[in-house]
Amino acid sequence: MRTGLAYLKSLDDDRCIYLRGERVRKVAEHPAFRGITKSVAGLYDHAADPKNGMIYTSPETGEPANKVFMIPRSQEDLVERRKAIKQWASLTNGLVGRSPDHVGSFLAGFAGNARFFDTEKRKFGKNVEDFYRRVLKEDLYVSYVIIPPQSDRSKTAQGQEFAFHQVGVAEERADGIVVRGAQMLGTATTVCDYLLVSCIVPMKPGDEPYANTFVLPVGAKGLKLYCRPPYALDRTSVYDYPLSTRYDETDVLAVFDDVFIPWEHVFVCQDVEKVRAQFFATPAHVLGNNQAQIRLSTKMQFLIGLARKIAATNGVDGFPGVVEKLGELACLAAIVEGMELASESTCSIDKNGVAKPNPRFLYGTMGLQAELYPRAVQILRELAGGGPLQVPSSSADLLSPETAPDLKKFIRSPGVPAEERIKLFKLAWDLVGTEFGGRHLQYEMFYAGAPFVAKGYSFRNYGYDEAVAQVDRCLASYGIND
Ligand SMILES: Cc1cc2nc3c(=O)[nH]c(=O)nc-3n(C[C@H](O)[C@H](O)[C@H](O)COP(=O)(O)OP(=O)(O)OC[C@H]3O[C@@H](n4cnc5c(N)ncnc54)[C@H](O)[C@@H]3O)c2cc1C
Predict the structure, then answer these.
(1) pLDDT tens digits, residue range 159-171?
(2) CA of 445 relative to ligand 1 center, distance in Å
(3) Which residue out of 102, 146, 185, 199 has the highest number of ligand 1 atoms within 8 Å of its CB and is therefore the one to mutate?
(4) The whole model's pTM is what?
(5) What are phi and psi of 290, to 5 degrees?
(6) Residues 216, 195: contact at Cβ < 8 Å?
(7) What is the residue-wise DSSP string for 86-102?
(8) Ligand 1 centroid to 201 CA: how many Å?
(9) Which of 27, 68, 260, 275 has the most CB atoms lying inside 10 A of its own CB?
């Protein structure tokens, strides 16, 4: 099993990350990334410790591997996998969306129906299997970019202003392909080992050059990562910004400047139909999003815990109006957790023997996420009032003899000294009010596609037959003379 130290060392591979006009050197030591890389290292150390029960013997390799990467083959496997994913999510309070288990679950799903990737020309299924085995053996951390750069959404890849805006195959060679263009939005790509590149947005005939799926090491020559403003960089105190400093995964635009991809790293090549179907003809989409829902339920629990503690600290938790709000939060958290458990306990075994969480319940929550999470944030903000702003500018004010006495006297609650009260409210603000918090709101609304896309998954997977039949039975039970 990989250790945190081994992970941190592996990041020193001359990857090309640009930040504030400069190239980043030594990712693990850079102030923008050292918080998140330390958190990820903590995940690896936790999983490697046998007493935490995250290790199993993988049938694919015959060796010990992390349960989060498992191809589940029974409901019991799904339970074991969930417990492992939950352990990781709990270590970061559900605030690291693209931890290694996210894309790892997609890759397990691809490998769960690897023959799907075979074509008459090339047996890509073996590449999928081989790479999945590497994930298991090496505990690889993979992120993905599967959305074309946002530019003109009324057109597909071929209709953009210039060729190879969206990443595509510029040259096919005997030993592999050369790819050119860009793709969004690589969460955690700066701090992972490999990048999975594909396109989940529908394409049409003529888009073939852009219809690909491949993996590449983040240090690959020609791959350039353009980072959004990082939140950890100017916020050095963990006490003041406990989340921004430790869990900022960063998001990047990935630019492929004629990057060579050897055939063994290609899963789909210039095939519009396969690139579309790969997510749904394999269990990839359900397993990946099941991981995301387990993480979300952990985050919802964290959010309602914060709300409850804030209400108690302010002495309002017994007021009927506050009880109603806390109750609504409890409903929202219970819905996410309940749907996650329902999708697991009503799973099905597919034709390849893979246990698939029930998509009715899985997508049921995902489709509501863009309303459900913002609502939870709104309630927390409402309960917190001006408390998150009635805090000193930094921990330094609590340490300075000139300012500390006033702050300790006036920022307090009965039984809750200043240092603890300020700590609680700064934590809440980092979740809902800082740039980090704002990005998390956007993340929960968009990480699995725009809200209309997520509701489309629900539409396609609910299974309306019984519902319509029920209405038909009702209609048939009376007539015009009744
Ligand atoms: C914080 C964050 C992290 C992310 N991480 C990743 C990642 O790790 N990997 C990755 O690949 N992607 C990632 N994404 C990208 C994410 O998958 C996309 O944001 C998502 O697919 C939506 O695409 P878009 O942002 O281009 O929005 P658009 O598709 O441009 O949609 C924006 C809005 O336009 C309207 N709209 C657009 N098209 C239509 C239509 N056909 N019908 C009706 N309305 C429409 C809707 O109102 C929609 O909400 C991330 C996004 C965010 C915000």
Answers:
(1) 999 999 999 999 9
(2) 9
(3) 185
(4) 0.97
(5) -65, -45
(6) yes
(7) HHHHHHTTT--TT-HHH
(8) 10
(9) 68
Q: Match 């698939």 to its residue by tokens.
A: 356
E strand map for 333-388: 348-349, 355-356
Q: Which two tokens stand for residue 374?
A: 């913002």
Cβ atoms of 147 and 106 closer than 8 Å:
no
Between the CA of 354 and the centroid of ligand 1 the distance, in Å, is 29
Pair 205, 248: CB distance under 8 Å: no
Q: Which atom of ligand 1 approaches the CA of 144 most closely?
A: 9
Nearest Cα residue to 122 out of 279, 261, 270: 270
Closest residue to atom 49 of ligand 1, CA basis: 450
Cβ neighbors of 220 (< 8 A, separation 6 or more) are 259, 260
Q: Ligand 1 center to residue 34 CA distance, Å? A: 28
236 has pLDDT over 90: no
Cα 356 to Cα 384: distance, rounded to the nearest angstrom:
40
Residue 189 to residue 168: CA distance in whole angstroms? 19
The radius of gyration of the chain from alpha carbons, rounded to an integer in Å, stands at 24
Integer Cα distance of 9 and 137 in angstroms: 17
Whether residue 87 contacts residue 176, with contact meaning beta carbons closer than 8 Å, is answered with no
Structure tokens at 474: 């009702």
Going from the N-terminus, what domains does the chain have, and what CATH number goes with each? Answer: 4-281 (2.40.110.10), 284-472 (1.20.140.10)
Q: What is the phi/psi pair of residue 63, to 5°?
A: -125, 165
The whole-angstrom separation of Cα 200 and Cα 182 is: 14
- Lookup: tokens for 469: 């039949």
Give the residue among 250, 285, 365, 249 at the shortest CA–CA distance from 103: 285
Residue with tokens 């994913």: 85
- Tell me which residues have their CB closer than 6 angstroms to ligand 1: 98, 143-147, 150, 153, 184-187, 251, 439, 442-443, 446-447, 449-452
Query: Distance between CA 132 and CA 107 in Å, rounded?
Result: 6
Reduced DSSP (H G I as helix, E B as strand, rest coil) percent helix, strand, coil of the chain, to 5: 50, 15, 35
* Banded pLDDT at 320 (limits 50, 70, 90): very high
Centre of ligand 1 from the C-alpha of residue 251, in Å: 13
Banded model confidence at residue 420, pLDDT cuts 50, 70, 90: very high
